[in-house]
Write a structure and sequence with these properties.
0% strand, mainly alpha, TPR-like_helical_dom_sf, Tetratricopeptide repeat protein
């Protein structure tokens, strides 16, 4: 309940701040986070980050969504992701969101997005290697090795292809 009240209060202050300082850039100040509970400080900072990213900053909005999603505010993160999915976006935006889902342990949400990305981007050796590594880490060695084969068919000289392959066999998640 306290989180909802803090989020509502932060939203009210945020909207009020825009009304007062229309045209002014929002920036964090020490008052944004000092002497506040961690979740309250994070919420205030995330509201500023969202305003800073604007309407067209999908990478930046995904970054804010990631912090919400992984920081225990999944609904707020999902809302940002849904907004991106429902608007004009790049394949790479979906890929980044799938990474967040994978990082959160939501493989069932990440998997179809990764698969769709590979279908749309059949020459992205690094993506094939990373997605294959994630399959291996989920225990699907057959699919992983098929995707590894595709990755090295595309590029067998790139360490960013080879490293996630090696790491997955040792239980190391791909570097993002």
């Amino acid at each position: 309940m306290k989180l909802r009240i803090a989020a509502a209060a932060a939203a009210i202050f945020f909207v009020a701040g825009i009304g007062v300082g229309y045209g002014a850039k929002l920036r964090p100040t020490p008052q944004t986070y000092r002497d506040k509970a961690p979740q309250e400080a994070a919420q205030a900072l995330l509201l500023i980050a969202q305003a800073q990213s604007g309407k067209n900053g999908s990478w930046e909005r995904i970054g804010a969504g990631r912090v919400y999603y992984l920081g225990g505010f999944k609904a707020q993160g999902q809302e940002i992701f849904d907004h991106i999915f429902n608007g004009k976006h790049e394949d790479s935006d979906e890929y980044r969101i799938a990474r967040v889902y994978a990082e959160a342990g939501d493989w069932q949400k990440a998997k179809p997005i990764f698969d769709r990305y590979l279908t749309k981007n059949p020459k992205d050796a690094r993506a094939f290697a990373e997605v294959a590594a994630r399959y291996l880490l989920q225990g699907d060695r057959t699919t992983a090795e098929q995707l590894f084969d595709r990755a090295i068919d595309l590029d067998d000289e790139d360490p960013w292809v080879t490293e996630p392959m090696a790491g997955a066999y040792l239980g190391v998640k791909p570097q993002e």
